[in-house]
Amino acid sequence: EALYIFQGVVLYWYVLSSVSQEYLLSLSVSSALSIMLHHGWNAIAMTVGTQLRISCHSLLCKKLLKLDANYNRVKDINEKMGQVTEGLVLAELAMVKAPYILIGPFYAL
To answer: What superkingdom heads the lineage (predicted)?
Structure first.
């Protein structure tokens, strides 16, 4: 939001200067490019994280049901399934946020 306020100030005070117009254009283009790249990256990360969670959840549920097929206590099976689901949700969040560790230094520059 501060960037848009700054763009408005530059446009208001120095609209006739060619340098300020180029600066304003470069700020606008870099803002739009940053938004487009961030949105694409976030969409890809969410898709991969969701696919990873679904595949792991399916595999673990099949294994859990196969191991507990002869086990008669349904309550214990439901508790195990809940624990598996909670762990996979945390794994999905970690998968989505992990790439930002690599990108963080570039944003700092």
So the answer is: Eukaryota
DSSP class of residue 20 equals H
79-109: per-residue pLDDT in tens? 877 887 788 778 777 777 776 777 777 777 6
pTM for the model stands at 0.48
Q: How far apart are CA 50 and CA 57, in angstroms?
A: 10
Contact indicator for 95, 52 with CB cutoff of 8 Å: yes
Number of domains in the chain: 1
Count helices and strands (H / E) in the chain. 4, 0
Which residue range(s) make up the domain with 38? 2-108
List of long-range contacts for 42-47, beta carbons under 8 Å, 24+ apart: 42/96, 45/95, 45/96, 45/99, 46/96
Decide: helix, strand or coil at residue 81: helix
